[in-house]
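Notes to self, Alcohol dehydrogenase:
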Amino acid sequence: MRAVAFDIFGGELDVRELPDPAPAPHGAVIRVLATGLCRSDWHGWQGHDPDIRALPHVPGHEFAGVVEAVGPDVRGWRPGARVTAPFVCACGTCPSCAAGEQQVCERQTQPGFTHWGSFAEYVAIDHADVNLVAVPENMAFVTAAGLGCRFATAFRAVAQVGEVRPGEWVAVHGCGGVGLSAVMIATAAGARVVAVDVSGDALHLAEQAGATHFVNASAGDAAAQVRELTRGGAHVSLDALGSPQTCAASVESLRRRGRHVQVGLLPGGPTPVPMDRVIGQELRLLGSHGMAAHAYPQMLELIRAGVLHPDQLVTRTIGLADAGKALAAMGSVPGVTVITPRSPL
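result:
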């Protein structure tokens, strides 16, 4: 198969021929028709993720395509099915999975991290019966690719972890793919959304996604600007980027008894959090890590009904030949980039 791979962390990303994956007895191989470019892939390429232990490595973890082959123990899927999958592939049997919390599975695997990912013509996943999600016939694969990570992650972070309610103020720090998804989902939930970014182009996309108030973080204290706009602070604030600066700003953006949701991955090293504010104002600090496959129907129904429009967040489609350059330049192009390893769909 053709795939994008690197031999050293931070090194050259090139397209090469690699062996096709084979399905595990409980797994499946997916013919990749679209795969998203995500900041988590950049972190992996930079060596920030301890799950990447062997090189060369193929990045990519949010994908959609068609089942190519299944292992002998798979019962619910056959070749030809249109599918996507969460970036956390759960085992289905550990205590967390038994409780329905597959997004924090104790034996999880992640394409693009624990094994070769989806910047390729084929990708393998484990425990297909637990992890595969059917893609509706009327949904383009380019749209479906983002559901496995950024859109589903934002949906759970806003609706289930942050518990955003109509009329609340929501601040979204970082308007990349996850942040723009969070803006759209929070707006659909009836919240008033403040978009925070250093890029005017990103803020423009946030306006198209539903944000009504905007903070350019390069112009000064972002948290103070959010508190002024919201007359006391946001009820919910999300760090959708993942940096010490955006994490602290998100916490400091909150009103008393507000909820901070950490979505963006933080690189190693200290992350200063204003704990005096957390204690004195009884703030809640929450983590959100993807969404289990069984939780997709609510999100898919809102997309089907026209309440949510993840397709509107895709700003460019590229081929495998341009994927390495795009990953290296992660964050320089606003919106969502989707790679089509075969042909645009």
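- The mean pLDDT is 95.
- The domain at 2-149+291-339 is CATH 3.90.180.10 (Quinone Oxidoreductase; Chain A, domain 1).
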